[in-house]
């Protein structure tokens, strides 16, 4: 059996509210617009109309102190830093988040045309500090994704256990949907070679779109996890690659589009078709 044939779905993840911590799940129902329940909600800055994202750490890093989950009835609950659980559809949710974040926000349940986030220059943030005024160009969301979710670009994000182990960081910092378990000796950054390749994960067929460029988010504190500059600095030193016409950027993982819809389960073989 080849090394590639030994790859399988090691874990599955979704993030019901954009830029909050998410949940590990045993299965994901996947459609052309991505994973069901993933990035389906977002907070909107009342002052600018932009989507709140920890990519602009100066304003929104407190989102990473919250975690979101979806219950059996499809209702999204958010756990606040003090341990309280608040339903996202409750009238008190937006005021509670406004108090936590220090900026007026409202909840959005579908992506509006032209929805964008501020993507603070990650190296400037690391060099100048979390509260520094740094370059922050606008990034229009989900340009390669049908539907109404608040994904950054593509329907699904996949990363290998080999890449995570090599960099030495937790999967949650990179916010993948699928972590692919890899056998001993599997090379890190193999995701670079997946562009245009079709993979199966259970009955689902996925097509690689290109390496995933990394922003400042992986370096930030996540819940009880401290800051981790190496989550960006390591791929910046080792894996600068062309990504989506944006130039040579530090990358880890790969984006995928969905060719055949279906259900992916932990343990499913992940293999090139």
From TrEMBL:
GO molecular function, one term: pyridoxal phosphate binding
Domain annotation MOSC: ranges: 115-273
PROSITE patterns: MOSC
Top-rank taxon: Bacteria
A Pfam family that the UniProt record links to this protein: MOSC_N
The protein's name in its UniProt record: MOSC domain protein
Organism: Mycolicibacterium chubuense
């Amino acid at each position: 059996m080849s090394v590639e044939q030994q790859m399988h779905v090691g874990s599955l993840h979704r993030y019901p509210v954009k830029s909050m911590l998410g949940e590990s799940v045993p299965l994901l129902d996947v459609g052309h617009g991505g994973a069901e329940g993933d990035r389906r909600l977002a907070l909107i800055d009342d002052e600018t109309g932009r989507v709140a994202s920890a990519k602009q750490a100066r304003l929104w890093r407190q989102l990473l102190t919250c975690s979101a989950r979806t219950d059996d009835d499809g209702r999204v609950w958010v756990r606040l830093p003090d341990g309280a659980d608040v339903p996202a559809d409750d009238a008190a949710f937006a005021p509670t988040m406004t108090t936590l974040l220090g900026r007026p926000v409202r909840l959005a349940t579908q992506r509006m045309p032209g929805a964008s986030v501020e993507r603070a220059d990650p190296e400037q943030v690391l060099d100048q500090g979390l509260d520094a005024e740094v370059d922050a160009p606008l990034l229009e969301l989900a340009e390669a994704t049908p539907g109404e979710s608040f994904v950054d670009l593509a329907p699904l994000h996949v990363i290998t256990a080999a890449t995570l182990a090599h960099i030495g960081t937790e999967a949650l910092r990179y916010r993948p949907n699928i972590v692919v378990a890899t056998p001993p000796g599997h090379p890190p950054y193999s995701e670079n070679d997946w562009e245009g390749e079709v993979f199966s994960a259970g009955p689902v067929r996925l097509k690689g779109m290109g390496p995933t460029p990394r922003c400042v988010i992986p370096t930030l504190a996540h819940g009880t996890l401290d800051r981790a500059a190496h989550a960006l600095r390591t791929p910046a030193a080792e894996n600068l690659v062309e990504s989506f016409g944006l130039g040579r950027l530090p990358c880890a993982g790969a984006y995928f589009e969905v060719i055949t819809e279906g259900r992916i389960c932990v343990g499913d073989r992940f293999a090139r078709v």
